[in-house]
Design a protein that fits this description.
The chain has 366 residues and is an alpha+beta fold. The protein folds into four domains: 89 residues, Beta Barrel (conserved putative lor/sdh protein from methanococcus maripaludis s2 fold); 91 residues, Beta Barrel (Elongation Factor Tu (Ef-tu), domain 3), CATH 2.40.30; 65 residues, OB fold (Dihydrolipoamide Acetyltransferase, E2P), CATH 2.40.50.100; 74 residues, Helix Hairpins. It is built from four helices and 23 strands. The strands form six sheets. Strands 3-12-15-14-13-16 form a six-stranded antiparallel barrel. It has a four-stranded antiparallel β-sheet with strand order 4-11-9-6, with no helix packed on it. The longest helix is centred in the N-terminal third of the chain and has 36 residues. It is elongated.
Length: 366
């Protein structure tokens, strides 16, 4: 038979053993589990401050070809969309009136040339008679004056003939530059007056991009600054050019100034297309990190710096400067080479233990 005293001791020992076991389990439950993260390294790089604008593409040379003489359209050689070379004949006007003007002017010149030649011969004869004192000097002077007057009339007639021939040549409407026909404004049978627009051309090589920028940015923009351009329709080509003109007028509605960038068409950009322009406002060396490495906390923006010996992280406040889609500039709080949490940073707290899975996830520096 078991003694009551021994029974009590055994029961007490059993209870202590249970309490001791419960205490150990409680300690394990309170441990903070390690968070799986990837890491990146704060690095220095040349960065650019960019102002992005969406503008329009225009032909830098787009002449409106006007008729330089009057007449009825007798023939048209090109249509909208045709490619032409400088000097090609685009259309022909009825030249009947101009041809008649040339013939009349040629007749005037011939008549005055004959009279001038006749008067010149007379002056030469009178000159010999004056030398022999056979006629009065006044008679010679009068003949010489008549020859002078005929010479002036002949010179005017030649000028009129030249103008008539030029007017006749203008019955052919000529392309002043190489390009493509944007629009035809006349048809066969139309009567056109001097100065009336007949064709619109676009020279596809010389282009200009007009970019609007906010008025508040205008003080940081100057002629010569670099702009990178690409088409919205096809971004496979990127051009680098410089600002060639700043239009001084601020738009009444947009409150923007316009920049002009002259380029050579890469081959498939079309007049009127939308163009994205990245204007480089500044370029400098800076410490950068990926945007998702920065976490906003009640105390401000922080990153989590790895303590590789302890495999935990330290919460580090930072000052963020320039923010670009692929990187943020850190103005203070980090040094080049600091390893910081990237994926999983938002789940961390100061001193949290971590597991580095960078090699598995392929985490990269900016």
């Amino acid at each position: 038979m078991i003694q009551p005293r021994l029974l009590l001791v055994g029961l007490a020992t059993f209870i202590l053993a249970i309490l001791s076991g419960c205490g150990d389990n409680s300690s394990d439950a309170g441990a903070i589990p390690a968070t799986a993260i990837t890491l990146t390294t704060a690095s220095a790089k040349q960065v650019e401050e960019i102002e992005r604008s969406i503008g329009r593409l225009e032909a830098d040379v787009s002449p409106a070809i006007a008729a330089e003489t009057s007449g009825r359209v007798a023939g048209i050689n090109v249509e909208a969309g045709d490619v032409v070379e400088a000097g090609d004949v685009l259309a022909v006007l009825d030249a009947s009136f101009q041809e008649a003007q040339v013939r009349a002017s040629e007749g005037d010149v011939a008549q005055l040339a004959a009279l001038y030649a006749q008067q010149t011969a007379r002056v030469e004869r009178l000159s010999a008679l004056v030398a022999d004192a056979l006629i009065p000097v006044d008679q010679f002077d009068e003949a010489a004056a008549q020859r002078e007057a005929l010479g002036s009339q002949l010179e005017s007639a030649n000028a009129r003939l030249e103008a008539a021939r030029l007017d006749l040549s203008h019955t052919q409407i000529i392309a002043p530059v190489s390009g493509s026909v944007e629009r035809r404004h006349v048809s066969v049978g139309d009567f056109v007056s001097r100065g009336q627009v007949t064709f619109s051309l676009v020279a596809p090589e010389a282009m200009r991009v007009v970019l609007p920028v906010p008025e508040r940015r205008s003080q940081r923009i100057a002629i010569g600054q670099v702009v990178r351009l690409r088409s919205i329709a096809s971004d496979d080509v990127e051009l680098s050019a410089s600002i060639s003109e700043i239009r001084p007028v601020v738009g009444a509605r947009s409150r923007a100034v316009e920049l002009v960038v002259k380029i050579t068409n890469p081959g498939h950009w079309r007049d009127g297309a939308s163009i994205i322009g990245d204007i480089v406002l500044d370029a400098f060396n800076a410490l950068v990190v990926p945007p998702r490495a920065v976490v906003r906390r009640p105390r401000g923006e922080v990153v989590y710096v790895l303590d590789s010996a302890q495999m935990n992280v330290r919460e580090q406040p930072v000052t963020v400067g320039l923010r670009q889609p692929n990187y943020w500039v850190i103005e203070s709080g980090l040094a080049v080479g600091d390893r910081i949490a990237l994926d999983g940073a938002g789940f961390l707290t100061n001193g949290a233990p971590v597991i580095d899975q960078s090699s598995e996830s392929g985490g990269k520096s900016p």
